[in-house]
Amino acid sequence: MTTPVNPAAVEDLSRHPRRTVTCCERGPRFGSAAPAQLHVDDPGELIAALPAMVGFVPERSLVVAVLRGAPDHAGIPIIDAVVRVDLEQDGVSRRGLATAFAEHVGRICVSENAGEVLAVIVDDRIREPAARRSEVRRATRTGPFGTLIATFARLLVDDHDVVLGGAWAVRAIDKDERWWSLPDAERRGALPDPATSMVTVAHVLDGRPIYRARSELTAMVATNYALREQVAAELVDALTAAHLRYADAIRRGDPDGYHRQMLERVLWHIANIEFGTRLAGGELAELAVALRDRVVRDALFALAVSDHAVAAERLWAELVRVLSDSDRADAAALLGYSAYVRGDGPLAGIAFDAALEADPSHPMAILLDTALRAGMRPDQLRRLARSGVETAADLGIELC
Question: What is the pLDDT of residues 123-176, one digit of tens each?
């Protein structure tokens, strides 16, 4: 198997606790062809590349790669999307999980005109089958995930005409871990070092983080309760000061002057973050008030494609941790958008979940979450950043 790896959409089906079966975070696409000709030449290389393609090291997961034909590589499929789901979910049987997962993967395949998928089980609780053929067959047929994979494969074919081209299992994605084929456990091997995978190297050089676990992503939006109380205490004074400045701008007939001043203040804080400055509670409260200004907030989406994107994303993440309700949703929408356009589907999904949990009716979070689920490519979302550039330009500020 030789598969040019397109940095793929990532769907993390564990991110929606509001549903009976967790379904999916649709990761953004990165274009129609890989930026470099990266190949996975055997199942071990494919499995070792999964952390880079998913964005974190999957554990106790079913990971599926959706394949489609690459127009410039006749007969060689390209990995167009990667989808992950937790193997254990409260109140959901493995058969039920397979059914829901097959339906979602099938919809992706239909939308992408894909006819084949590959599946990998990652679970530290399973054991490599014995080498003798009779025991291998028995282990494959009665193994803990045999029903799940069989149900998943059957539903894909019956309902979507999609073939499961291969399925493998591994206890963990680490150097020298053993992998084996689920249909034929005599086909087995050892993983190469994931850190030296061509796909991993390409992702790191491209500036895309690979997290050790999904929990590192959720920690980025976890509430800092002590600091949140401090910011909340400062928020009244920050609002009062902003109202006075706005009233003064209206009296002078210059409301744009107020918006410009607020936007400049946010940009000043982002510049300080780039130099390692930590923001105090009063400054974070001031920023929360600035984000309540729709003109300012709309302009700030431009930073996701600017030279200041990294610092801006750090600021949005900090604000998500210390704000609540609609203020938290405003910051989370900015964080999710920034992650979305740089191709970090898991973080984008987690951020949009945080936004909608804080404010279920938040318009921008709903719009962006819908786009993520629908598989809209990042370049299609860049119009929002361009609109932000125009908004800032109307205020006399150049963002690029």
Answer: 999 988 876 555 444 444 446 688 889 999 999 999 999 999 999 999 999 999
* Closest-CA residue to 221 (of 344, 83, 316, 338): 316
**Angle in degrees, 0-180, between the axes of helices 255-274 and 309-322, rounded to the nearest 10:** 100
- DSSP secondary structure letters along 113-136: T--EEEEEEE-TT--PPPSSHHHH
Concatenate the DSSP letters of all residues of 250-291 into one string.
HHTT-HHHHHHHHHHHHHHHHHHHHTTPPPPHHHHHHHHHHH
Q: Does the predicted TM-score (pTM) go above 0.90?
A: no
240 by Cβ neighbours in 10 Å (0-12 / 13-18 / 19+) ranks as exposed
Residue 312: other Cβ atoms inside 10 A: 24
Question: Using one digit for the tens of pLDDT, what is the confidence trace for 1-16?
Answer: 444 444 335 556 555 4
Task: Kindly report, as residue ranges, where domains of CATH 1.25.40 are found in the chain.
Answer: 225-394
Q: Beta strand 3-12 with 116-122: parallel, antiparallel or unpaired?
A: unpaired
Architecture of domain 225-394: Alpha Horseshoe (1.25)
Q: Alpha carbon of 34 to those of 6, 7, 37, 209, 261: distances in Å? A: 4, 7, 6, 18, 42
